[in-house]
């Protein structure tokens, strides 16, 4: 699936005020996929220790159950574009909503560990689809004058989904008396946590029936009359519909469908710019950010924090994630992508280094010493803040802008795949690494954060203020 056509040379067309509210509703409805992306990715955080206890498994097996969803994510992301080009963006959203729903029900009612793993793969597939469909649909429907701001709905929805999942987990844990395996509504608390996702999943499905199909897909399917109706809905009554349809048709015909072989070349298999994209994706994950969202409750409990408090800290970390994302959205076009990435890297080195130091102390009565405990807690929030205000947003901006037009789609696909694989590697390895040496695990993440600084300085080119055509 390709993104929307470039803005017309005659200047950005803005929706009239009476249409803008409708456009915002459309973008928000599509961004519900992003909310579910964030919610489903992070909700497992509340169930990790209960799953370990329920099925009496070690860290290695536990890690595979948590990380296996990422396999589904990679497959879903890789196939969503083709599915959407074949059956439409809205149908793709509806399939994703169904998969989110059945995954939530199946994960809440597993009869065995492998059954839980299966439903997590299904949920991962839905996440992968949502990660592709939401941004592409919003870009294709939004008027050019509002495309950037409406496009940010997806990232905002993801971080809000993460925060809400942690808040819900905390509430459920308290309702179950602070026991992840405590009984609630006839189920164990962790099962309720995973099952609650049915509510936003069903809402996403219902909202998909209330928004129009992308004009771009309608034109590709020969439904020009309906495409004109949608364009009038989102761009206003004064738009020249003939010119807009002709513009979209021309853009679609002139696009180069990049393929994998277009990326080959250079000394090391891929062209250098592709390796830079892969490097950005890998560094984004190898600093250990998803440990904060998949395992934070387990992490805090392992150093003596009460389960209820550990769930609360997971929620406060998610709020910090939202704050950092907002900061990034404000400054990414003001100070540039590269300076923001460097600021974030320095902040992450400090936060991760302090966590590594704090976790190097022996537990006293099952807890970190008071000073080290507070340092670890504050440093964890510092790390998430600096990640969110930099690499969490900047990497996706870079990947959307840095590649030449003729290889952009294929290169972005390879870089995104590298990101899912790196995410899987960190997620699958953390429990075993933490059992080995928690402090050294954070030293490893600190080293990757430090190495990202020379990588950005030497290999990454600033893209602020450049048109896509200027990228080659």
What report would you give on this structure?
The chain is an all-alpha fold and 472 residues long. It has 2 domains: 1-253, MFS general substrate transporter like domains (Growth Hormone, Chain: A); 256-472, MFS general substrate transporter like domains (Growth Hormone, Chain: A, Up-down Bundle), CATH 1.20.1250.20. Helices cover 74% and strands 2% of the residues. It is built from 20 helices and 3 strands. It has a two-stranded antiparallel ribbon with strand order 1-2. Helix 1 (17-43) runs parallel beside helix 5 (89-108), helix 5 (89-108) packs antiparallel against helix 6 and helix 5 (89-108) runs antiparallel to helix 9 (198-208). The longest helix is centred in the C-terminal third of the chain and has 52 residues, at 408-459.
Q: How would you summarize the topology of this molecule?
A:
Layout: H1 17-43, H2 48-55, H3 59-67, H4 69-87, H5 89-108, H6 113-141, H7 147-175, E1 183-184, E2 187-188, H8 189-195, H9 198-208, H10 215-220, H11 224-235, H12 241-254, E3 264-268, H13 272-286, H14 289-294, H15 296-302, H16 307-331, H17 337-359, H18 370-388, H19 391-401, H20 408-459
Antiparallel strand pairs: 1-2
Helix pairs in contact: 1-5, 1-6, 1-7, 1-9, 3-20, 4-5, 4-6, 4-20, 5-6, 5-8, 5-9, 6-7, 7-8, 7-16, 11-12, 13-19, 13-20, 15-16, 16-18, 17-18, 17-19, 17-20
């Amino acid at each position: 699936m390709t993104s929307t056509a470039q803005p017309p040379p005659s200047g950005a067309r803005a929706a009239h005020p009476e249409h803008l509210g409708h456009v915002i509703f459309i973008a928000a409805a599509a961004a519900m996929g992003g909310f579910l992306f964030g919610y489903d990715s992070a909700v497992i955080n509340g169930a990790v220790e209960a799953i370990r206890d329920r099925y009496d498994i070690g860290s290695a097996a536990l890690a595979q159950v948590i990380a296996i969803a990422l396999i589904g994510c990679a497959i879903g992301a890789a196939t969503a574009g083709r599915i959407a080009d074949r059956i439409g963006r809205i149908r793709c959203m509806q399939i994703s909503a169904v998969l989110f729903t059945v995954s939530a029900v199946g994960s809440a009612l597993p009869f065995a560990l492998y059954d839980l793993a299966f439903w997590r793969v299904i949920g991962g597939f839905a996440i992968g689809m949502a990660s592709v469909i939401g941004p592409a649909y919003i870009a294709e429907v939004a008027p050019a004058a509002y495309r950037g701001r409406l496009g940010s709905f997806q990232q905002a929805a993801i971080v809000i989904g993460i925060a809400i999942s942690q808040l819900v987990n905390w509430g459920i844990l308290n309702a179950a008396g602070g026991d992840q395996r405590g009984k609630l509504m006839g189920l164990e608390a962790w099962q309720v946590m995973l099952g609650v996702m049915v509510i936003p999943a069903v809402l996403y499905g219902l909202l998909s029936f209330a928004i129009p199909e992308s004009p771009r897909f309608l034109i590709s399917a020969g439904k020009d009359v309906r495409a004109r109706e949608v364009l009038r809905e989102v761009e206003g009554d004064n738009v020249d519909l003939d010119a807009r349809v002709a513009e979209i048709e021309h853009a679609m015909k002139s696009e180069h469908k990049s393929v994998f072989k277009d990326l080959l070349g250079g000394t090391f298999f891929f062209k250098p710019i592709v390796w830079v994209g892969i490097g950005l994706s890998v560094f984004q994950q190898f600093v250990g950010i998803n440990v904060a969202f998949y395992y934070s409750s387990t992490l805090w409990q392992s150093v003596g924090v009460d389960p209820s408090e550990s769930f609360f800290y997971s929620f406060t970390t998610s709020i910090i994630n939202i704050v950092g994302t907002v900061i990034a959205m404000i400054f990414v076009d003001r100070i540039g992508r590269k300076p923001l990435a460097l600021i974030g890297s320095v902040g992450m080195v400090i936060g991760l280094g302090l966590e590594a130091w704090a976790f190097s102390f022996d537990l006293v009565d099952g807890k970190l010493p008071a000073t080290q405990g507070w340092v670890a807690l504050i440093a964890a929030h510092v790390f998430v803040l600096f990640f969110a205000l930099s690499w969490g947003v900047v990497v996706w901006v870079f990947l959307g802008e840095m590649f030449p037009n003729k290889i952009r789609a294929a290169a972005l696909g390879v870089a995104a795949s590298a990101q899912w694989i790196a995410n899987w590697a960190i997620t699958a390895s953390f429990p075993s690494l933490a059992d080995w040496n928690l402090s050294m695990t954070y030293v490893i993440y600190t080293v990757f954060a430090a190495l990202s600084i020379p990588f950005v300085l030497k290999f990454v080119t600033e893209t602020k203020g450049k048109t896509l055509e200027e990228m080659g």
